[in-house]
Amino acid sequence: MAVVVRRGPELLAKRGLALLDEAGELFVTLLEGLRRTWDLKTWWGEFIEQAWFIIRVTSIPLLLIAIPLGATISLQVGDVARQIGAQSSTGALVVAGMVRQIAPLASALLISGAGGSAITSDMGARRIRDELSALEVMGINPTHRLVTPRLWAAAVVSVLLCSLVILSGTAGGFYFNVIQQGVTPGAYFDGAASLLQLSDLGITLFKAFVFGLVAAAVACHMGMTCDYGPAGVGRAVTRATVATSLLVFFLNYVLETLYLVLVPPKI
C-alpha cells in the first residue's frame, strides 16, 4: 500500500490558505452582522438582554483585576521613582498606562474570556440543535437576529468596562502611591494630567469599542461553525478565546502605532 508523505511547504501552504479562508468568513460574519444595524426593532430586546448578561459576568472580575493591577503598577513604579528622586511622577505613569494600554486590553480580554465563552457556547448549542437551520427555513437570517445584538452589546459594554478599569485602577494606584508611599494627592493627579490629552481617552474608548466588536464576532463565528456534539462546542470556545486574544493584541499594536503617528504624545 502506497504511503503519501506530505511535504512541509505544501502542508504550510494548505494551513495558510485555511487560515485565510477562516479569516474571510469571520470578516463576512462581522460585516453581515453590522449590515442590519438600522433595523433596531428586530434586535433591541436581545441587545438589552445580552448587554446585561455581559455586565453581570464581567464587572466583578474586572474590579478584582483592575484595583490590584493599578496598585501593583503604583508600587513598582513608585519604588523606582523614589530611587531616582521622581516619586511625584508616579501618578502620571500609572494613570497614563491605565488609560493608554491596560484599560482597553483588560476589558477586551474579560469580555472574551467570560462573555465571549458564553456567547460561543450559546451559538454552538443552537447549531447542534439545528436552531440556526430552523431560522433559515422560516426565512429569518440568523446572523441578523442573533449576531447583530451580540456585536453591539459586547462593543457598548466593552466601552463601559474600559471606563471602569480606568477609575478603579487609578483608585488603586492612588491608595498605594498617596497613602502608603506619602505622595501628596495634588502631585498624584497633577502628574497624571501632565502626560495625557483628551485624544488619549478618545482612542482608548475607540479601541475598547473595536475590541468588543471583534470579541463578539469571533465568538459568534466560532459557535455558528463548530463541529456537532458537546466536544465540538468545547473546542469552539477554546478557539474563540485564543483567536480573540491574538486579534486584540494585533489590533492594539496597529491602532496604537497609527495614533502615535497621527497624534504625537504630549511632552
TrEMBL record:
Signal peptide: none annotated. It comes from the Bacteria. The keyword Cell membrane does not apply. GO terms for molecular function: phospholipid transporter activity. Pfam families: MlaE. The chain crosses the membrane at residues 53-75, 151-176, 205-224, 236-255. GO terms for cellular component: ATP-binding cassette (ABC) transporter complex. The keyword Transmembrane applies. Keywords: Membrane, Transmembrane, Transmembrane helix. This is Phospholipid/cholesterol/gamma-HCH transport system permease protein.
